[in-house]
Amino acid sequence: MPILVTGATGTVGSSLVRQLVDAGEKVRALTRYPGAIGRKPPAGVEVVYGDLGKPETLVDPLTGVERMHLIAMNGYGVLSTAEQIVALAERAGVRRLTHLGHNDPSKDDEHPLEKPNRLVQQAIERSGLEWTHVYPGEFMANTLDWAESVKSGRRVRAPFGGWNSAMIHEADIAAVIMTALLEDGHAGATYWPTGPEPVRRRDAVRLIGEAIGAEVTFDELTPEQAREEWQSVYPDEVIEWFLDMGADPESNAHVAPDFEQVTGRRGRTFAQWAADHADDFR
Ligand SMILES: NC(=O)c1ccc[n+]([C@@H]2O[C@H](COP(=O)([O-])OP(=O)(O)OC[C@H]3O[C@@H](n4cnc5c(N)ncnc54)[C@H](OP(=O)(O)O)[C@@H]3O)[C@@H](O)[C@H]2O)c1
């Protein structure tokens, strides 16, 4: 039976698809744009159309599926259709579901940025599925936002050079999800995987430079300059959330044991991530 992977064209999902195929699993990859997949999926992957915002389009993709991975996002928004998706999944015979999302435990259920995430979480937990939530720390892949300026001018313009973040490689997030999909013992668990060590923003820039064999300059922006630069890129509440986090240099530095506990391995470092992605910055 195929495993249904939603978000299959994304950062984590494409790695999950590859790892599942390498493990010998049959994969059904969901996308809104089956005709326009940028990176070719591995041979044998069944690519199907479906829109998480239109649950009726998921009836066919869910047919014959017992295990699925759900990405609980839609751009910068969060799924508002989780309740219907979960009901459809149960009706189709899905038993096990992994959920990739975001959760800030320091905020309560009614916080405007957290409420939609908590509603997804609650819809999943109310189901009879064997669910596992995966709430990773910051993705190393977020630094791909710097790729164009590194390519064109060997510079990065960003605030908070001293901000320390236990960023995680997308392949390691996918590895946690894959373990929960394939192995027993993860039902009802919530994992908070991070990378193996925190990395300061200016060190991440230096490590990207080392990976491409060139010096990359870090131009530190003030929070005000960053707010201005980000205005055309992110919604206001997301900008304020970033600036809030950045104000405390250690707010994201905690290294959680979850990755090692679930996979039995040490997580990939930022230097490894930069080497894996060197071509994106050249
Ligand atoms: N970035 C971080 O630091 C961070 C930290 C913690 C948690 N997270 C969580 O990680 C998730 C993002 O993962 P990612 O970076 O791997 O994703 P991504 O690269 O941004 O890709 C988004 C994926 O979602 C799919 N998608 C979006 N809207 C859809 C819809 N309406 N119907 C069907 N598919 C839809 C896209 O598929 P198509 O376009 O092909 O349809 C694409 O595969 C979010 O839930 C976020 O909260 C991120």
UniProtKB/TrEMBL annotation:
**Record-linked SUPFAM superfamilies:** NAD(P)-binding Rossmann-fold domains
Gene3D superfamilies attached here?
NAD(P)-binding Rossmann-like Domain, UDP-galactose 4-epimerase, domain 1
* Origin: domain of life: Bacteria
Q: Name one Pfam family in it.
A: NmrA
Q: Which InterPro entries match?
A: Ergot_Alk_Oxidoreductase (IPR051604), NAD(P)-bd_dom_sf (IPR036291), NmrA-like (IPR008030)
Q: Where is the NmrA-like domain?
A: 3-240
Q: What is this protein called?
A: Uncharacterized protein YbjT (DUF2867 family)
Q: Which organism is it from?
A: Herbihabitans rhizosphaerae
